[in-house]
Design brief:
The structure is a homodimer. By secondary structure, the first copy, chain A, is mostly helical. Helices cover 76% and strands 0% of the residues of chain A. Chain A contains nine helices and no strands. Chains A and B meet through helix 7, helix 8 and helix 9 of A and helix 7, helix 8 and helix 9 of B. Chain A binds a DNA duplex through helix 1, helix 2 and helix 3.
Chain lengths: 199, 199
DNA sequence: CGTATCATTGAACTACGTTCATTGCTGAGA
DNA sequence: TCTCAGCAATGAACGTAGTTCAATGATACG
């Protein structure tokens, strides 16, 4: 039974996610404020806590959407990529880079959200991460046909982490950021060199 | 002239840095509190602001020391490394990994400190970063003798960022962290593969 | 020694996230 | 339709931060 209360609850939940998403995208995670949120949503501050346990829960809901968009962008890039597995890796990594650059503050929020120590990442995060890893390990399995599953998993993680690091430090303008073209060049350098001459 | 006031000022400054360093190392940057700090230092909260502009300034002073220790560890590893330039890269990267693992919270504070948007990183940060980059680019110049300076700078940055990414995600236990041995394996994989068969 | 100057103090101020006693709706049963 | 038990919504209040500043105390120089 969808009571009037439950409908309103769901509507408020959606509205809060939309507003938080916009705030994070425009001003960053640190600009997310309970009172501003309530003002914009036209509700009382307390109402937020009827729908989300705390602001971190709301941030995680936004992050789930962000991560999903990121995964979709990478998947789309992969769909349009050439057959060559190395080029597939390059295209996906550059799609990752483009997403991070175009959605910088939202992308940062994926990693800046406070996580209670000792608590595992939420399921959707691990699932989405698993999807990304599959996109990477499939071409890798073609490039390195002799490696076993454990090796491929390690390679996959290593390459993802490398690309992530290049994008993370490259986009950090505080430490003299790198131009978009040079970030793409670094990504291509590392990936092409890495996939060269497999044994 | 070193007046009594200036001496006390310097002593308080040093004492605050020591306390903040211990707090960050043991409980993380988020546990750094002005009132606790004043309690431990035996001064008033306001005194902190006579010596540091705000808590971020204090954190930056701690970070400068942390970064310096990090650079020293990497330099020491390089001094003990074999002649082979590829192995030098591996040894340095694993020293970076070890430092991050052994000083996890202090190392995290290097990147978690709030930086005012649009403001450049402090000089000591850029200088220490430059030192690290030199350690990397020297072996790289041996491995890739035909690359010009700009190329080497890009390679240097790419490799540093890659290793940083591997360590960063590997040590993040929230997203199913990686064992110490596997992090070292990933580092060695990426670096050895990268330096293989240069053209 | 006196006193103008500057350091030191900690209560107060601001800005948060979060809670909870109160208020007001909702909807199932009479 | 009417009632009212229970639940949702409210926003003032609470706790905890960083930071400030008027009042106080020490300093150092003539």
């Amino acid at each position: 039974m969808a009571t009037k209360t439950e409908i309103r609850r769901q509507e408020l939940r959606d509205k809060l996610i939309i507003i938080a998403e916009r705030t994070i995208a425009q001003k960053g995670l640190s600009a997310l404020r309970a009172r501003d949120l309530a003002n914009e949503a036209g509700c009382a501050v307390g109402a937020i806590y009827n729908v989300f346990g705390d602001l971190t829960d709301l941030t995680l809901a936004v992050n789930a959407r962000t991560f999903h968009r990121l995964g979709a962008d990478v998947a789309e890039a992969l769909a349009d990529a050439p057959e060559d597995p190395v080029e597939q890796l390059v295209v996906m990594a550059q799609a990752y880079h483009r997403f991070a650059a175009d959605n910088h503050l939202s992308w940062r929020a994926l990693f800046d959200v406070e996580r209670a120590p000792g608590e595992a990442a939420p399921d959707w995060y691990l699932a989405e991460m698993g999807r990304l890893f599959t996109y990477i390990s499939d071409p890798l399995a073609v490039i390195f046909p002799d490696r076993d599953g454990e090796d491929l998993a390690l390679l996959t993680r290593a390459l993802f982490s490398s690309v992530h690091g290049i994008v993370l430090l490259g986009l950090d303008e505080a430490s003299a950021g790198v131009s978009t073209e040079n970030i793409d060049r670094m990504i291509a350098l590392v990936l092409r060199q890495f996939a060269r001459n497999p044994k």
